[in-house]
Amino acid sequence: MENIQPQHESTERRVMSRIDAALRINYQLICEAAALDDPYAANFILPRYFLLQAELDQCDHALNAELSKLTEKDQHVAKILSLFNQKLNLFTGALYDSIVQSMLPESEQVNFSETGLSFYSREKISKGSYLHLTLSHAENFFHIAATAQVVYSELQDNGQYRNGAYFVTILPSDRAKLAQCIEQHGGI
Asked: How far apart are the C-alpha atoms of 151 and 57, rounded to whole Å?
């Protein structure tokens, strides 16, 4: 788990690549002490759809790692297990599409980098507040949890507040998922 120290906002924007993407975002206000906790800890409210997606991601990651090791020893068995995994992915995908889609919040445009994000809310979130976040990419490129500190909350013409926050605690593997998504989609 990584704890990030805040950087000056204008410096960060020039150094880190950022992208706009459609994300499903949930947040809850937390205390400063909780911001240092593991973002997947039981004391945080994690939506069911998020937990399901995160578990499926972990299973795929673990299986792919084991399949690559097995391929070196027995390619035939590895091929059979790979085909079985493909069928399992189709089954869980169909289950996800038919059941889980109804539980999902609407995707919204979020601007993010490896170190933070900006998003919209209906209510003002005080500068300095700490948040627990779950972020799910609309096309399932990643599902991550993190804690963050709000650096601004500005009223926009549309009546919503644009909030900027930097990550306080984020797993290195989740940061890598963000970086990969930014790289694949041409971050600026």
From this structure: 31
The reported pLDDT for the residue numbered 171 is 93
List CB contacts of 70: < 8 A, sequence separation 6 or more.
Answer: 77, 78, 81
- pLDDT mean by block of 10 residues, the chain; 188 residues: 47 61 88 94 79 72 80 82 80 67 71 93 96 85 91 95 96 90 76
> Residue 153 burial by CB count (10 A; 0-12/13-18/19+): exposed, middle or buried?
middle
Q: How far is CA 14 from the centre of its chain?
A: 22
pLDDT at 59: 77
Record the pTM.
Answer: 0.69
CA distance 95 to 34: 34
Q: From CA 57, how far away is CA 63, in angstroms rounded?
A: 10
Backbone torsions φ then ψ of 151, nearest 5 degrees: -110, -20
- Residue 114: which of 10, 19, 1, 9 has the closest Cα? 19
* Of 158, 35, 184, 163, nearest in space to 110 by CA: 163
Q: How many CA atoms lie within 13 A of 76 on its CB side?
A: 0
Please check whether residue 142 is in contact with residue 25, taking contact to mean a CB–CB distance below 8 angstroms. no
Tokens of residue 43, six digits: 């004391």
Quote the crossing angle between the two packed helices 48-73 and 75-99, to the nearest 10°: 170
3-class secondary-structure state, position 121? strand
